[in-house]
Amino acid sequence: MSRFSSGNRSSIQRLLSYNETTTAPGDLAPAPSAAAPAPGANLREFPLLKEEAQVPQSPDDLDAVAVRTWCSLALAALGAEREEIDAINVYPVADGDTGTNLYLTMESAAQAVEAVFAAHETVTGPAASAPLLSDAVRAMAHGALIGARGNSGTILSQLLRGMSEELAAAERADGAALRRALERAASLAYEAVAHPVEGTVLTVATAAAQAAASSLAASSLAASSSGAASVSVVARAAYEGARAALPQTTGQLAALGRAGVVDAGGRGLVAVLGVLVEAVTGEAVAVRAKAPALPPAADDCSADHADEGGPAFEVIYLLEADDAAVDRLRHRLDGLGDSLVVVGGDGLWNVHVHVDDAGAAVEAGVEAGRPYRIRITHFGTDRVAPPRERAQRAVVAVVPGEGLLELCMEAGATTVLARPGEPPASGELVEAIRRAHAREVVLLPNDADLRHTAAAAAQQVRTEGVRVALIPTRAAVQGIAALAVHEPDRRFDEDVVAMTSAAGATRYAELAVAERQSWTTAGVCQAGDVLGLIDGDVAVIGTDVAVTARTVLDRMLSAGGELVTLVLGDSMPEGLGEALEAHVRGRHLAVDTVVYRGGRQASPLLIGIE
């Protein structure tokens, strides 16, 4: 049975109202609020992005709250300046993505810090505690490392790592500790770049560190009345030093001089340091005047780079390897291309390089250790391809496994892969919506925990003139149902209502394996038990996958249904899909079953009933 053979469904139960901010049909239960998360829910929203930024109790205390505030404000600042920073990106490659890469890197860092606070908020009573500064800065550095994008994002992640190392080890996080952190950050960033060039973010970072040191050396600013150096003084000095160094980059690098712009990565760092001042003092720095549009000379810079025969591909991957293997990898990649940056440590690294032979760069990583999250971008295509005409309408869907990618793409959707334990950030959803290149977009998050992330992405893209409707699908099977009735030729409002209705008429279930003994809505489960969750609640506890799946199906179909959708993960035994299909056929008349292989996904079995 072909699921997408027709755009029409057997019957639409009802038409549900929606608005373009979110569509909230009655059959789709609201996502858990941030204030009262469901048990076991992953908190993926940033409370501090809702104008709730907290300021540490004392301007001279650098604590976990200050780090949380800094990350939140930095993400907002980079989001506000993203387009302008993208526009002045001419070095090392004029591909116009520095602002976006910095934003995505910072978003990953902020996400990691929020996870630390979320973990502490789940503990109440006498055992309740607040995160330590060391917890927050280590999470920030790790989040930036695994989420680093592009040359600029990779260097930013190393700057944050350098600061983390010093602040986590400091007995007191005063101004002297911040000064050491800034110096360590600049030093590590230089070491990470195979061939450092002045006039880049490295220059701006060094200027910030030097200004911070000078502020402590000055006798009138050396210490506060308590004998501790002032964090606010050092932070402000670092910002002012970076801001003063930024205009000088135009004359330090030929590519910037030809284009008449400052270094894009350096400008991003100035924004990040500016909100560090705000995080520790509660006072916003002076807003820089809006930059003029990029002069025509920037096009000449892009052409020059192409004429110079720069590498055709950007290759980025995370790598698990020891220090000795990474040293050999650096030497090998340096011979393959340029813009080599390797950051990280303690067995986990982020590798970035521009090469002509992308396969050789990946093979070098395989020889060094275990590369994953491999991303390859073809510069040539991005530079010479003529602008595409915008499509009228597109669907962007988050899919939980590789197996559903092809299915959703066949149905005409632009997809975002959500790997187990790696939910997409709002920046990735924004990128996917832009990649769809349409005037109207229907967004299907397919996960209750992604609703707020998807709403943030939709709101950002609306400011760019794209009409976005968010259908809050809570499971992949609801997204499949919505895609099945999608018809791009009808009016946008009608299409969204039909897709919303199809999703709302689809009940969903999944199997999971209990990790420990726990109380559930169906009773007490033991570690290793198979749990059957219906519409998000545990309804069945069993010991056998097939038996539990049949019980869940029977319970759901007792209320009626016309079509069963099964999505099997790669851990499910061969023949299970056929066995469940035969069970439905034998026990429930006039009910069709469709079976898909979902590949590696968080839930071993997804079930949809329409």
UniProtKB/TrEMBL annotation:
<dbReference type="InterPro" id="IPR019986">
    <property type="entry name" value="YloV-like"/>
</dbReference>
<dbReference type="GO" id="GO:0006071">
    <property type="term" value="P:glycerol metabolic process"/>
</dbReference>
<protein>
    <submittedName>
        <fullName>Dihydroxyacetone kinase</fullName>
    </submittedName>
</protein>
<keyword id="KW-0418">Kinase</keyword>
<dbReference type="InterPro" id="IPR004007">
    <property type="entry name" value="DhaL_dom"/>
</dbReference>
<dbReference type="InterPro" id="IPR033470">
    <property type="entry name" value="FakA-like_C"/>
</dbReference>
<dbReference type="Pfam" id="PF02734">
    <property type="entry name" value="Dak2"/>
</dbReference>
<dbReference type="GO" id="GO:0004371">
    <property type="term" value="F:glycerone kinase activity"/>
</dbReference>
<dbReference type="InterPro" id="IPR036117">
    <property type="entry name" value="DhaL_dom_sf"/>
</dbReference>
<dbReference type="InterPro" id="IPR048394">
    <property type="entry name" value="FakA-like_M"/>
</dbReference>
<dbReference type="Pfam" id="PF21645">
    <property type="entry name" value="FakA-like_M"/>
</dbReference>
<keyword id="KW-0808">Transferase</keyword>
<feature type="domain" description="DhaL">
    <location>
        <begin position="65"/>
        <end position="278"/>
    </location>
</feature>
<dbReference type="InterPro" id="IPR050270">
    <property type="entry name" value="DegV_domain_contain"/>
</dbReference>
<dbReference type="Pfam" id="PF13684">
    <property type="entry name" value="FakA-like_C"/>
</dbReference>
